């Protein structure tokens, strides 16, 4: 299955179309660490992580695991674990996946800049829950929780997320 995303914030799969939030830096083909852009391209969905203290495991054919208090993601281009999951505490710059807000109650790891990792190209690009009002992300794609759960229910091991630089003809 293919999921298609295009600016200013639309996501479509299997004939369904929902609102989404994209990076504060827009959509870019030349994504770089820290630019706040959502990368353009096609990316496999690697796995789903969720907060078991807040939600039941999402129903999906993708690999699923519960997040732990010490889960994180390295976003330090100078560290060998760059753009990889890590355990906290962690000395290099990183993002905690166990958050006080609800944004990562369900988080999908996208196969962006991971095979192989290119230093400085960007890290921690996820599909996750949107902020109220669909405020911009740091480069991720974010959906309402109910839309994210519905999407995951339709995913399989071959699902890809394609982010376009512009809307398809006739779509805004």
Q: How are helices and strands ordered from N to C?
A: EEEEEEEEEEEEEHE
- Predict the CATH topology: L,D-transpeptidase catalytic domain-like
What is the terminal separation in angstroms?
22 Å
The largest sheet is: 9 strands, mixed
Please, could you describe this protein's structure?
It is a single chain. With 172 residues, the chain is mainly β. It has one domain: L,D-transpeptidase catalytic domain-like, CATH 2.40.440. 6% of the residues lie in helices and 33% in strands. The protein contains 1 helix and 14 strands. It has one helix at 145-154; strands at residues 2-6, 10-13, 16-19, 27-28, 38-39, 41-50, 64-66, 71-74, 85-87, 94-96, 106-110, 126-129, 141-143, 160-163. Strands 1, 2, 3, 6, 7, 11, 12, 13 and 14 form a 9-stranded mixed sheet that branches. Strand 2 (10-13) and strand 3 (16-19) form a beta hairpin.
Give short descriptive properties of this protein.
172 residues, mainly beta
Quickly describe the structure.
The protein is mainly beta. The chain has 1 helix and 14 strands, in the order βββββββββββββαβ. β2 and β3 (16-19) form a beta hairpin.
Could you give the topology of this structure?
Elements: E1 2-6, E2 10-13, E3 16-19, E4 27-28, E5 38-39, E6 41-50, E7 64-66, E8 71-74, E9 85-87, E10 94-96, E11 106-110, E12 126-129, E13 141-143, H1 145-154, E14 160-163
